[in-house]
Design brief:
The protein is 57% helix and 10% strand. A 6-stranded mixed β-sheet has the order 4-3-5-2-1-6, sandwiched between helices. Strand 1 and strand 2 form a beta hairpin. It is globular.
């Protein structure tokens, strides 16, 4: 659960080789059997605006460009960045989930509140997990070049988020290449466009860190069960993103968790769906309305999973009186 949802958050609910080149273009959704395909379609169908990453919202003299993002680099992002360059540079405001400065503050948070990220007393994960489970963890860590003895002191949610990074993407992440949100932020900074953030980064991390340890461990176990091919999981989400299948990629995570056969997996997925996606969307809506007030030209760039659904950004704009239209690719 945590792996899948952290990866969704990272790609769509936390990169100089590009992801498409290093992770391939395999799409596990395209490989679903007829029954699972029908179930996925049924899960997607009730949600407003299930497809499309670029939208224009208008109300009177106000224009809002809505961009669904992924937070890792891919060569295909260059075309989107080029298309949005002038729009961002001429905006009155760029609204993001979190700014680069906000994310940089996480290092300080880890220093000030290490108990959020690390096991500071008592048994480590080597002791908490069984030999078989720790062997699986250690195998993944070795592929990432992370010493097992160090990761054994991670809180389970933090280890899950670490394992959410596919091995194929490590060199890109370490190179400092940027995902779409950060590339748009660079344009805004160079043009002197003000930035605003919708999230409190510590509060978002606490959605994971404050979970009971047993729930965190269940999430870690689902991570291990669904990561037989972590590169394929990543490429699946990226392919869905560039096809504009934003709701489909999210609901596919639900199917993967169910297929993993972990006890209470479906319930755990729904809990995180409510907190990581729906709850944050609901928190964002009044903030967005306040930030848009009096502005004529705003760009909102948030993870693509946040666009669709009754609580999504697009419906929030519709409720605020905006008329929505997709931007052609």
């Amino acid at each position: 659960m945590f792996k899948r949802l952290c990866l969704l958050a990272a790609l769509l609910t936390l990169p100089v080789q590009a992801m498409a080149q290093t992770c391939g273009t395999r799409d596990l959704i395209a490989e679903l059997g007829a029954d699972d395909r029908a179930r996925l379609d049924a899960l997607v169908a009730p949600h407003p605006y299930p497809t499309g990453n670029l939208w224009r919202a208008t109300r009177g003299d106000s224009t809002v460009t809505v961009v669904g993002t992924i937070h890792v680099p891919d060569p295909r992002l260059s075309a989107i960045v080029e298309r949005l360059d002038e729009t961002v540079a001429n905006a009155d405001l760029l609204i993001l989930e979190a700014t680069a400065e906000d994310e940089a503050g996480l290092a300080t948070l880890a220093t000030e509140k290490p108990e959020m990220f690390f096991i500071t007393e008592g048994p480590t994960l080597i002791d908490i997990l069984g030999d078989e489970e720790w062997a699986k963890v250690n195998e993944r860590l070795a592929a990432m070049g992370i010493p097992g003895f160090l990761a054994a002191k991670f809180q389970p949610w933090y280890l899950s988020m670490t394992l959410a990074i596919p091995p194929c993407a490590l060199s890109a992440i370490q190179s400092g290449a940027k995902g779409l949100d950060r590339q748009l932020e660079v344009i805004a900074n160079e043009a002197g466009v003000p930035l605003a953030a919708l999230d409190d980064t510590e509060a978002v991390l606490r959605l994971f860190a404050d979970e009971p340890i047993e729930d965190q461990l269940d999430g870690l176990r689902i991570t291990l069960e669904t990561q037989a091919d972590g590169d394929a999981a990543s490429s699946t989400l990226i392919e869905a993103y560039f096809d504009g299948r934003i709701r489909e990629s999210w609901e596919f995570g639900r199917i993967q968790v169910e297929q993993a056969g972990i006890e209470n997996g479906a319930e755990l997925f729904e809990e995180v769906n409510q907190s990581l996606l729906i709850g944050r969307n609901e928190d964002w809506e009044p903030k967005m309305n306040a930030l848009l007030d009096g502005k004529e030209n705003v760009v909102i760039a948030v993870g693509a999973a946040h666009l669709s659904g009754e609580s999504g950004v697009l419906m929030a704009l519709k409720r605020a009186g905006y008329t929505l239209a997709p931007l052609s690719r």
